[in-house]
């Protein structure tokens, strides 16, 4: 067996609680961030590379991580974006012929520190009961006071602007330039599978930096606008919120996913709030209030749109409800061509129940273009 002498590691939570584990590989390491957990049984590479997780320490509840390696084309961005990984059993070997790397090589390429052999059930139960909080993972196990000091310096997720850390610096294009439709996407942390979904629907996408202006985006003359998923608190994203107000005012077709959904709510004067411990997994039930049908969805969010304020808003209606806790799952503007969801219709590897939302957006675009 590899790495019989792996270093001891700890997770120190903001409230002083400590959980124990071992460093993956034979390295020393340290990482900080908000500790959160994802209950997906598969899709670890997509989770680790999702820019929405920037600044978060990821606890995976699936007991085995790494056993099918990684494959470059399955990444949601250029590298791992979580700040660190906490898992139960880490597989140093993998058994998928198509894989191009082991998970360990993949994490090393992203310079990402991981710890395993953690009682993740106990840790997840603790977060569920006590809420999301900052944490530090480290092999410096005899220096608790020093680690506490470092942890105290980590900013609170509430109020934190992170989109600028993951957004593209320059605009770029995705898909076939001869496609029938053109969509301008604001990158506040966009996942590649959103771009792939547009490409599959005959769309050429131009992706703009998080602080792009309406003038910059509209100059390209797109058929529709898209606001992406992304990390951090939506409230400080002034530039994206103002841009959204203008797109809504001009009544261009507009679709938002997750952080993009939250930005649309704020642009309509509806508050967002930090949830107790958020939703992160690939089996979250949602009810579509228009059709009455249920969907199993992929979710990853720590903030949510205020339900009472949405219900009281004359311009906006709730279209989807997250059934686990009755929070807002999706909204649409009553008299504007604008809608959004808190969850992930682009989910990869799935579930794909919600992919009809991309078709709905295309229908809206086609109606305007016709
Ligand atoms: N996936 C996302 O876009 C997440 C949105 C936001 N950062 C949240 O945690 O709620």
Report strand %.
25-35%
Structural domain tally: 2
CATH superfamily of the largest domain: Class I glutamine amidotransferase (GATase) domain
Largest sheet, in brief, is:
10 strands, mixed
> What is the strand tally?
19
The kinds of small molecule bound in this structure are: glutamine
Uncertain spans:
none
- Total helix count? 11
**Structural class of the secondary elements?**
alpha/beta
CATH class of the largest domain: Alpha Beta
Element pattern in H and E: EEEHEEEEHEHEHHEEHEHEHEHEEHEEEH
Q: How far apart are the termini?
A: 64 Å
Helix content: 10-25%
In what order do the strands lie side by side in the largest sheet?
Answer: 10-12-11-13-14-19-18-17-15-16
Shape: globular
**Do you know the CATH topology of the largest domain?**
Rossmann fold
Task: Report the average pLDDT across residues.
Answer: 97
Task: Give the CATH architecture of the largest domain.
Answer: 3-Layer(aba) Sandwich
Radius of gyration: 21 Å
Could you give a quick summary of the protein structure above?
With 370 residues, the protein is α/β, with parallel strands linked by helices. The protein has helices spanning 44-48, 103-109, 120-130, 144-152, 163-166, 192-200, 214-218, 238-250, 259-267, 307-312, 356-369; strands at residues 8-13, 18-23, 30-38, 56-60, 64-65, 84-86, 89-90, 113-116, 133-138, 172-174, 181-186, 203-208, 224-227, 254-257, 272-288, 294-305, 316-322, 327-333, 338-341.
């Amino acid at each position: 067996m590899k790495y019989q002498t792996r270093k001891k590691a700890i997770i120190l939570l903001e409230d002083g609680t400590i959980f124990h584990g071992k460093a993956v590989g034979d390295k020393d390491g340290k990482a900080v961030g908000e500790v959160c957990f994802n209950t997906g049984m598969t899709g670890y590479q997509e989770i680790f590379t999702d820019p929405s997780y920037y600044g978060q320490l990821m606890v995976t509840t699936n007991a085995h991580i790494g056993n099918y390696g990684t494959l470059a084309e399955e990444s949601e961005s250029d590298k791992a974006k979580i700040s660190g990984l906490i898992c139960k059993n880490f597989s140093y070997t993998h058994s998928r012929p198509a894989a191009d790397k082991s998970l360990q090589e993949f994490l090393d390429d992203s310079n990402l520190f991981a710890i395993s052999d953690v009682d993740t059930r106990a840790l997840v139960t603790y977060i569920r009961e006590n809420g999301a909080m900052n944490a530090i993972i480290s092999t410096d196990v005899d220096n608790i006071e020093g680690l506490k000091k470092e942890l105290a310096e980590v900013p609170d997720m509430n109020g934190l602007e992170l989109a600028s850390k993951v957004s593209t610096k320059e605009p770029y294009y995705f898909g076939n330039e001869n496609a029938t439709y053109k969509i301008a996407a604001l990158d506040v942390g966009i996942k590649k599978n959103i771009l792939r979904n547009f490409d599959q629907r005959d769309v050429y996408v131009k992706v703009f930096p998080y602080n792009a202006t309406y003038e910059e985006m509209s100059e390209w003359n797109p058929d529709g606008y898209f606001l992406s998923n992304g990390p951090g608190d939506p409230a400080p994203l002034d530039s994206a919120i103002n841009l959204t107000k203008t797109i809504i005012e001009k009544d261009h077709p507009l679709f938002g996913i997750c952080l993009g959904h939250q930005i649309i709510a704020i642009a309509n004067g509806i508050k967002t709030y930090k949830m107790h411990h958020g939703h992160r997994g690939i089996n979250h039930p949602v009810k579509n209030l228009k059709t009455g049908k249920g969907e199993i969805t992929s979710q990853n969010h720590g903030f949510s749109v205020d339900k009472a304020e949405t219900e009281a808003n004359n311009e906006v209606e709730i279209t989807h409800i997250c059934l686990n806790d009755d929070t807002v799952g999706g909204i649409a503007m009553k008299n504007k061509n604008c809608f959004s969801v808190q969850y992930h219709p682009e989910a990869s590897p799935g579930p794909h129940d919600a992919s009809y939302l991309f078709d709905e957006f295309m229908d809206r675009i086609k109606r305007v273009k016709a």
